[in-house]
Amino acid sequence: MTTAETNREIHRRIDAVWRLEAARIIAGLARLVRDVGLAEELAQDALVAALEQWPESGVPDNPGAWLMAVGKRRAVDRIRRDQRLERKLEEIGHRMETGPESGADGADVEAVLDDPIEDDILRLVFTACHPVLPTPARVALTLRMLGGLTTDEIARAFLVPEPTVAQRVVRAKRTLAEAGVPFEVPEGEERAARLASVLEVIYLIFNEGYAATAGDALVRTDLCREALRLGRVLAGLAPKEAEVHGLVALMEIQASRSRARTGPSGEPVPLLDQNRALWDRLHIRRGFAALLRAEKLGGPPGPYVLQAAIAASHAQAADAEETDWARIAALYEILAQRAPSPVVELNRAVAVGMARGPAEALGIVDALAGEPSLKRYHLLPSVRGDLLFKLGRFGEARTEFERAAALTRNAPERALLLERAEASGRAAESRPRSGRGV
């Protein structure tokens, strides 16, 4: 192997180590310096040191520990330098000597860094997903801090310019610092509120991978995989939170359908038409196990536990005909009470249509026609078109499918909707016309 090839291999290993260890390193440093932005800078310094030294010295036996040790030394040096500067300014200003503040010497610094790392990662999760940040910033910061993704990778994943992502990350770190957000896991009601934000961000990342809002691919497995990893980490850190296990269960079961969701040319395959033999049984078993853990914790089921129960109902059926649609409709009714939203109501309409017929479901969908948040949501006309088609109102169905195709920014979805529009048009043309004689 040539020197260039060896260096490329080492760089690949460094990249892999960084993805695995970034969150742990940044979290440990953030607990010490109390600043997420500074912690990332120190971790990046350690990464640069690895890029400079490992091609010469070789990859250490425990590369994560090596990076953490370098990061610790940089943090300790930074704190001591700041303390010396602060003492010098006080000496000049007050003309008197002052000793270091209690708890700020090197020994105490090292002691702080030796605390359990699991608590640090949990603190980092709650900090990166703090509600003081807008949702796009939470997503970017979470993927950057906890996923170890570069700004370029995040930008490509969400189809936005790299400078936009970089600005979001910089502004997020500045906002956290200016707002004085503590690096801690909140307690009581505040923890419950912040946990909802954490789960929202993780599920948003998963959903963007599961059904991309734009681009030429329906599924982005890298985002699904990253969201699942974050969910599993959070479940290990917060084992008594039912909603965390509920989210993991939901993502596991939905991820099980990945191979069946697209055809040979990348075209979308609707849930009812999927070959369930392609569903990944390992993901399903993991999902069922996570759902069982959530249910054993007791208490009224939250939104993610309910959605996981709905996904489990689909996974339990050997085919679409065996699906217990009455149970799914009932679960959606509970979900609509616990976490009401237009999207939940639209999903409930689909379940009602399968359980009790398209006419009743159409009434639910028509009631959503004036909902502002669904004005640009392509699934509203898509669902309405499907119900109209089942009712034999083919011309109206065609119009709805064409409207849905115009709204979506995902190329495979648009192609499928246009196909359904054409099929509706053919059905309308072939239908016998009353009053013309036969």
From TrEMBL:
Domain DUF6596: from-to ranges: 194-294
Domain RNA polymerase sigma-70 region: 25-84
Pfam families reported in the protein's UniProt record: DUF6596 (PF20239), Sigma70_r2 (PF04542), Sigma70_r4_2 (PF08281)
Assigned keywords, A-Z: DNA-binding, Sigma factor, Transcription, Transcription regulation
Domain RNA polymerase sigma factor 70 region 4 type as annotated: residue spans: 126-176
Highest rank taxon of the organism: Bacteria
InterPro entries per record: DUF6596 (IPR046531), RNA_pol_sigma-70_dom (IPR014284), RNA_pol_sigma70_ECF_CS (IPR000838), RNA_pol_sigma70_r2 (IPR007627), RNA_pol_sigma70_r4_t2 (IPR013249), RNA_pol_sigma_r2 (IPR013325), RNA_pol_sigma_r3/r4-like (IPR013324), WH-like_DNA-bd_sf (IPR036388)
BP-aspect Gene Ontology terms: DNA-templated transcription initiation; response to stress
Coiled coil: none
Alphabetized GO MF terms: DNA binding; sigma factor activity
Family statement drawn from the similarity comment of this UniProt entry: Belongs to the sigma-70 factor family. ECF subfamily.
Stored NCBIfam families: sigma70-ECF (TIGR02937)
Protein name as it appears in the record: RNA polymerase sigma factor
Native species: Actinomadura viridis
Phylogenetic placement of the source organism: Bacteria, Bacillati, Actinomycetota, Actinomycetes, Streptosporangiales
